[in-house]
Write a structure and sequence with these properties.
The structure is a single chain. By secondary structure, the chain is α/β, with parallel strands linked by helices. The protein has 2 domains: 129 residues, Aspartate Aminotransferase, domain 1; 241 residues, Aspartate Aminotransferase, domain 2, CATH 3.40.640. The chain contains 13 helices and 17 strands. The strands form 4 sheets. A 7-stranded mixed sheet has the order 4-12-11-10-7-5-6, sandwiched between helices. The radius of gyration is 22 Å and the shape is globular. It binds pyridoxal-5'-phosphate. The site of pyridoxal-5'-phosphate (PLP) has 15 residues, from helix 5.
C-alpha cells in the first residue's frame, strides 16, 4: 500500500464532487437521496444552505430523542474528555451501570452489549443455541422465524429473515432457520420440532411494512414456547426504547421474552446494541463464548444511559402515547382525504405506517420535496417515525406536509 496521497487533479476533483451527487468513493449499496444534512436540532435537520427539513424518519428509528438533544450532547462530550475505550478485558463502569438500569427496567437479568441491530440478533441466536447446548440438548439449533422479517445484514441474520432479495448472490444460506408466515400461530406450531431451539419474532415488523403483531399472537407465542420448552426471542431493535409507547413493545401484550435484541434507539444515534436475557437463557454464554471489541464501550454506554434517563422520566412514555394518538388521527384524516391512495393506516406508538396504492418511493420523494423526511418499507408502506420528543405542532406540520406530498402523488397518478 502506498502512503502518498493522490494529487487532487481535475478528474479526481470531479470524482469527489459533492454538489453534483453522491461520491463514487462510497460503495453504492444505498440508493441515496441527493441531499446532505449539516446539522440538526430536535425534530429538524438543516442543509448547509440552511434549508430546514422535518425529520419523520429519525434515521430509521435511531434518533429517539431527535438531533443534538442537550442531555445526550452533555453525556457524550463529558465522557469524551475522560475515556473512550478500554476493551472488555477490563470492567467498564458505564457498561455495568447501563446493564443494571436495563435489568431494573425490563424482564432481563443479563445484558451483553454490541454495536448494531444485526449483531444483537446474532448474539440472541447464539445465546438461544448455547442455552440448549449446555443443557445437554445440542440437537436443538433451529430457529423458527417469520417471512417479512428483518433482522439485519450479516449472513446469519439474512438467513434468519429469509428475504430472497437480500440473500441473492451471497452464496450458501446459513442453515438452521425455518420460516413461517407472520401472525400465524398454527404454522408456527407445525414448524416447531425436536431440533427447534427458539422462535425469533419482531413484535411489530418494521422493515416488513409496520405489521403489528396482535396481543393474542404474542401471548400465543409465549405459551407455545413454554409448552415446547424452547426460547422466545424478540427482536425489538426497531420497536424498543419507547418507540411503541412502552419502554418495549412486548409490554403491550403483557408477556416477556427469554431473550431480546435491542439497538437503534438505545444509543440515540451513537452506535449501540444489546442482547437482554433472563438468567436461565443467558446460561450458555460463559467466558470466551461470545464477545465484541467495541461493544458497550464508555462512550456508547454513557449516551445509552442518558437516553434511558430521559425515556424513563415519569410521564415521558405517556407523552409518546399521546403524540402517537395525535399522529394516528392525522394519518386517519389523510386516509379520508386520499381514499384512492391511502389504503390503510397502521402502527404502534410512534412507529406508524400508511399502506399506499402507489410506489412508496414516490411518496418519499414527494415528501422530500415538501421538506419532510419519511421512510419506505415493505408491503407498499411509507413509515412515519418521528423522534419521541416531537412536539404536537410539529406533528400537525408533518401531517400538512405529507398531505401536500400525497396530493402531488395523487395528481401524477391520474
Ligand atoms: C434495523 C433492524 C435490524 C438491524 O439493525 P442494524 O443496526 O442495521 O444491524 C435488526 N432488526 C430489526 C427489527 C431492525 O429494524
Amino acid at each position: 500500500m502506498g502512503t502518498m496521497s493522490k494529487p487532487l487533479t481535475a478528474s479526481t476533483a470531479a470524482k469527489t464532487g459533492t454538489s453534483k451527487g453522491p461520491s463514487p468513493a462510497v460503495m453504492g449499496t444505498y440508493g441515496r437521496q441527493n441531499i446532505v444534512f449539516a446539522k440538526g436540532e430536535g425534530a429538524w435537520l438543516e442543509t448547509e444552505a440552511g434549508e430546514r427539513y422535518l425529520d419523520f424518519g429519525s434515521g430509521i428509528a435511531v434518533n429517539a430523542l431527535g438531533h443534538a438533544h442537550p442531555r445526550l450532547v452533555a453525556a457524550l462530550t463529558e465522557q469524551a474528555g475522560k475515556l473512550w475505550h478500554t476493551s472488555n478485558l477490563y470492567r467498564v463502569a458505564g457498561q455495568e451501570k447501563l446493564a443494571e438500569r436495563l435489568v431494573a427496567a425490563t424482564f432481563a437479568d443479563k445484558v451483553f452489549f454490541c454495536n448494531s441491530g444485526a449483531e444483537a440478533c446474532e448474539g440472541a441466536i447464539k445465546a438461544a443455541r448455547r442455552f440448549h447446548y449446555v443443557a445437554g440438548r445440542p440437537e436443538r439449533t433451529r430457529i423458527v422465524t417469520c417471512t417479512g422479517a428483518f433482522h439485519g445484514r450479516t449472513l446469519a441474520t439474512l438467513a434468519a429473515a429469509g428475504n430472497p432479495k437480500y440473500l441473492e448472490g451471497f452464496g450458501p444460506e446459513a442453515p438452521g432457520f425455518d420460516h413461517v408466515p407472520y401472525g400465524d400461530l398454527d404454522a408456527l406450531r407445525a414448524a416447531v420440532g425436536p431440533e427447534t431451539a427458539a422462535v425469533m419474532v419482531e413484535p411489530v415488523q418494521g422493515e416488513g411494512g409496520v405489521q403489528v403483531g396482535s396481543s393474542d399472537y404474542l401471548k400465543g407465542l409465549r405459551a407455545l414456547c413454554d409448552e415446547a420448552g424452547i426460547l422466545l426471542v424478540l427482536d425489538e431493535v426497531q420497536t424498543g426504547v419507547g418507540r411503541s409507547g412502552k419502554l418495549f413493545s412486548h409490554e403491550w401484550a403483557g408477556i416477556t421474552p427469554d431473550i431480546m435484541a435491542v439497538a437503534k434507539g438505545i444509543g440515540g444515534g451513537f452506535p449501540l446494541g444489546a442482547v437482554l436475557a433472563t438468567e436461565a437463557a443467558a446460561a450458555g454464554l460463559t467466558p470466551g463464548t461470545h464477545g465484541s471489541t467495541f461493544g458497550g464501550n464508555p462512550l456508547a454506554t454513557a449516551v445509552g444511559e442518558a437516553v434511558l434517563d430521559v425515556v424513563l422520566e415519569p410521564g415521558f412514555l405517556e407523552g409518546v402515547q399521546q403524540k402517537a394518538l395525535r399522529l394516528r388521527q392525522g394519518l386517519a384524516r389523510l386516509k379520508d382525504q386520499f381514499p384512492d391512495l391511502v389504503v390503510e393506516v397502521r402502527g404502534q406508538g410512534l412507529l406508524a405506517g400508511i399502506k399506499i396504492d402507489a410506489a412508496p418511493a414516490d411518496v418519499v420523494a414527494a415528501a422530500l420535496g415538501e421538506r419532510l423526511l419519511v421512510v419506505g418499507a415493505g408491503d407498499s408502506v411509507v413509515r412515519i417515525i418521528p423522534p419521541l420528543i416531537v412536539a404536537d405542532h410539529e406533528i400537525s406540520e408533518g401531517i400538512e406536509r405529507l398531505s401536500r406530498a400525497l396530493a402531488h402523488v395523487s395528481k401524477s397518478k391520474t
